[in-house]
Amino acid sequence: xxxxxASDCIQERKSNLKLKATPxxxxxxxxxSDGKFQKGALVxxxxxxxxxxxxxxxxxxxRSKGNGRFLVEYCTLKTDDKREFLRExxxxxNIRPGPPLKVDNRYCLLEKVDAWYNDGWREGLISEVxxxxxxxxxxxxxxxxxxxxxxxxxKHQEWIDGQWVGADKV
Length: 170
Fold this sequence. Notes:
- It is globular and about 50 Å long.
- The protein has one helix at residues 2-17, and strands at 42-46, 55-66, 69-78, 85-91, 95-97, 112-117, 120-129, 134-139, 144-149, 153-155, 157-160, 163-166.
- Strands 1, 2, 3, 4, 5, 6, 7, 8, 9 and 10 form a ten-stranded antiparallel beta sheet that branches.
- It folds into two domains: 2-97, SH3 type barrels (Roll); 112-169, SH3 type barrels (Roll).
- The protein contains one helix and twelve strands; from the N terminus they run αββββββββββββ.
- It is mainly beta.
- A hairpin with a 6-residue loop joins strand 3 and strand 4.
């Protein structure tokens, strides 16, 4: 399973967010220079399922299916019987490389962030700042507001024309 190999990378990304720098054990393919994803590339895949809109899940490219479609294997989502990582075919427009980690010491009120929720990254806004490293995050798509630890947040960035752009510049 490709994602069994990628689990170290996912854990490393989460650990880096928790400010525990760990050296990479494996090298992962990101993209070809022509912008196309290769087999084995660690990516994020956007969900278009109801209730999960604007959520991104870590996955590995299994293979190209042609015509801008790819078979991916999720690194955090499992099949209903929980025995294997979920595989799914998706369009290239729903795939992006994992964003560069930008760890912030503190997030500000109304700052756009991604929150680690239900095994994926979900876009929201900081609606309340606590003094003990906790934040309330509002999710506009669902109208929900939830509390998150600092370690479960990352700066929101957009993948535009093959480049990462900070939310403040979009």
